[in-house]
Write a structure and sequence with these properties.
Number of helices: 8
Shape: globular
Number of strands: 10
Strand content: 15-25%
Strand order of the largest sheet: 1-10-7-4-2-3
Bound molecules: iron/sulfur cluster
Length: 212
């Protein structure tokens, strides 16, 4: 059964690569997490400045650890003494050579759908860094934009729990459309295509389930 699931994920990932390439992205197929990790290492030259979006996929694949290894100018948003200092790093990422991130959803028509708390991820994805690399497992593939937004809302409580935000959804796993400052669902972004800057966004479609 597992080999059948694997085959299905391979079909899904390859199909997405074809769709994304037609929409101006530089889409690449990766058989597994290790292949995705190798691809990212082959794309980013040593010494390049690199910002990242918060992503379980990046840590799960080992990509985040590679970016933090010292061979790149890693813009470290993680080890900051305050929220203000972290925001300064978020701003730096807008002028990085590369921005590497996961995504909340990829639609079958080739749109990237994301919801952010601060906009530090969706902003640089849309404009700023010369190159963006998005790594996505097949669990991120959805039918259309509405399904993408629904997916982002469904996983928001998990993400809120992960980053230890005191939001109502972290008590019961349900969205309460909260109004607190810690709310993580503040900015919805849809990248419809990559026609304006062809190839600016590389999407590595991995034939595995990765992240939330
Ligand atoms: S709107 Fe608030 S309660 Fe709903 S998922 Fe987002 S952070 Fe949680």
């Amino acid at each position: 059964m597992d080999s059948i699931k694997k085959w299905f994920r391979e079909c899904q990932a390859k199909d997405m690569v074809e769709t994304l390439n037609k929409k101006g992205y530089n889409a690449i197929y990766a058989e597994d997490a290790q292949s995705a990790r190798d691809l990212v290492a082959s794309i980013i030259p040593h010494g390049a400045s690199v910002g990242v979006g918060g992503s379980v996929t990046l840590s799960q694949t080992g990509i985040l650890q590679d970016l933090q290894s010292g061979v790149y100018q890693f813009i470290d948003r993680y080890n900051q003494p305050s929220f203000e200092a972290m925001c300064e790093k978020y701003k730096e990422a807008y002028t990085a050579d590369f921005f590497v991130t996961g995504t909340n959803a990829v639609t079958r028509q080739g749109e990237l759908v994301n919801i952010d708390a601060t906009g530090n991820r969706v902003g640089p994805m849309a404009f700023g860094p010369d190159k963006v690399i998005v790594v996505a497992g097949t669990n991120k593939i959805v039918r259309d934009i509405n399904a993408g937004i629904m997916r982002t809302k469904e996983i928001a409580p998990i993400n809120a729990k992960r980053i230890k935000h005191q939001t109502p959804c972290t008590s019961d796993g349900q969205c309460h459309d909260c109004t607190c400052q810690k709310r993580i669902c503040n900015i919805t972004s849809i990248i419809h295509n990559c026609y304006k800057f062809p190839g600016r966004i590389t999407v590595i479609m991995v034939a595995e389930e990765l992240g939330y």
